[in-house]
Specification:
The protein has 449 residues and is of the alpha+beta class. It is built from 18 helices and 13 strands. The protein is 56% helix and 10% strand. Strands 1, 2, 3, 4 and 6 form a five-stranded antiparallel beta sheet that branches. Strands 5-10-9-7 form a four-stranded mixed beta sheet. A two-stranded antiparallel sheet has the order 8-11. The longest helix has 25 residues, at 25-49. InterPro entries: ABC1_dom, ADCK3_dom, Atypical_kinase_ADCK, Kinase-like_dom_sf.
Length: 449
């Protein structure tokens, strides 16, 4: 930690000095190289810390910080993106011990075969491919040994890691990031809870025409182990490198339908849309993984989200404030109405454009800046959004990151109208989904025109 901090501080100081002595291309190039080296150092640090810091890296890899020079932005994001799947794995001997302890059986008695090389190593656990004795292909998600105990120390060290991040990308609300992680990391450590969330999603989407949620093998899932069906599919980066524009547009609509439309229909909100959790099957379906950052929503919560979004669409600042004030999130001070509306527009505005639009990944940087500025304004500094608003807003920001990386184009409002106003679907995917869900999960939108 200390070595990384010293190295980042020295490089950022050198970069500032280079830029201060002139504006030549050579100086800018040298300063950019310093930033890339700092990003590489942070990735190495975050991947070693696992847990909370790894979660920061995964989130940042899915969005555009907007605070590094445009000419190095793709390379900068590529460095951060390595955190999506490439944490340093734990030895298989240690992983096998966790599996046997949790399942109470020898590995050979549970699995006909298990690959010692992990498919992925992420923030609090890693995934191995295996075969059951009945021939079923599965993946085994296993918590790192001792990770729960390490989280406390990890959170202490996270503050220094975030300071290093703010040195590279000033303007990021690192306090809000740390606060969110503290609240959610405990839930993500409970794999039994995550397995229950995944089962609920798998039931909702079983047989769906274009969405796949792998089934959980309940009998083999415990507090530190989840076993679920293996999905043979491409990872996000592989799909993104070869897909046609039409395929990107279609994938973008599926992502919006799963992460944004879906919760309004079946009341299950998955708040962790990043590239490592999206897989692309050869038959055009898209698989979604990881249900630790999750919320079961009630009818009132959905109603509030619909009402606030409708007020944003109508640019009715007073009504938006009244709804949020009713929830106890803000005082009903008329001076807060316009700045609060501006921030909601920054987050949801792209979804309400009534013409084809390609989402710009740099919008996430604007959202971060606006949110930080808003929290600094008098009267808004104590803002406490309801859980469903906060999780959805975070999810929207990460969805924008995914759509921006895909360069997907669509009239997104055609998709949003279904839950926002109860309109009939106009896209082919929307019509297929409506046929599938039928009367099982209908929108219950209270229409405001």
């Amino acid at each position: 930690m200390s070595g990384t901090a010293a190295g980042v501080a020295a490089r950022e100081g050198a970069a500032r000095a280079l830029l201060a002595t002139g504006s030549s291309d050579a100086r800018r190039s040298a300063a950019s190289r310093q930033q890339l080296k700092s990003a590489q150092a942070l990735v190495k640090l975050f991947s070693g810390m696992r847990g909370a810091a790894m979660k920061v890296g995964q989130t940042l890899s899915a969005v555009d910080l907007g605070t590094v020079p445009e000419e190095i932005r793709p390379e900068f994001q590529a460095i951060l993106a390595s955190l999506q799947q490439s944490a340093e794995p734990v030895s298989f001997r240690s992983i096998a011990k966790v599996i046997e302890e949790d399942l109470g059986e020898r590995l050979a008695d549970v699995f006909a075969d298990i690959d010692p090389e992990p498919l992925a190593a992420a923030s609090i656990g890693q995934v191995h491919r295996a075969t059951l004795h009945d021939g079923r292909d599965v993946v085994v998600k296993v918590q790192y040994p001792g990770i729960a105990e390490a989280i406390h120390a990890d959170m202490q060290n996270l503050r220094l890691g975030l300071k290093l991040l703010s040195a590279i990308a000033p303007g990021i609300d690192t306090g809000a990031i740390a606060g969110e992680i503290r609240e959610r990391i405990a839930e993500e450590l409970d794999y039994e809870l995550e397995a229950a969330n995944q089962r609920a999603m798998a039931r909702a989407y079983r047989g769906h025409p274009f969405v796949v949620v792998p089934d959980v093998v309940t009998s083999l899932s415990r507090e530190r182990v989840i076993v679920s069906d293996f999905v043979d599919a491409k990872r996000f980066a592989e799909f993104n490198a070869t897909a046609t524009q039409e395929q990107r547009n279609r994938a973008g609509e599926i992502i919006v339908r799963f992460y944004l439309n879906g919760p309004m229909r079946h009341r299950l909100l998955n708040g962790d849309p990043h590239p490592g959790n999206v897989l692309f099957l050869d038959d055009g379906r898209v698989a979604f993984l990881d249900f630790g950052f999750f919320k079961h929503m009630g009818d009132d919560e959905v109603r509030h989200l619909v009402q606030t979004t409708q007020a944003t669409y109508e640019r009715d600042a007073d009504r938006l404030l009244a709804i949020v004030a009713e929830l106890g999130s803000l005082p009903p001070d008329p001076r807060l109405a316009e700045p609060f509306l501006e921030n909601y527009e920054a987050i949801f505005g792209w979804l309400m454009v009534e013409e084809p639009r390609r989402v710009d990944v740099t919008q996430t940087a604007d959202m971060m800046r606006r949110y930080t500025q808003m929290r600094g304004q008098e009267g808004l500094d104590q803002l406490t959004l309801p859980a469903e608003h906060f999780v959805l807003m975070r999810g929207v920001m990460l969805v924008i990151g995914l759509l921006g990386q895909l360069q997907a184009q669509n009239t997104w409002f055609d998709v949003a109208r279904e839950w926002l106003f109860g309109d009939a679907p106009v896209t082919e995917l929307g019509q297929a989904e409506e046929t599938f869900f039928g009367t099982r999960h209908t929108y219950t939108t209270e229409v405001v025109r």
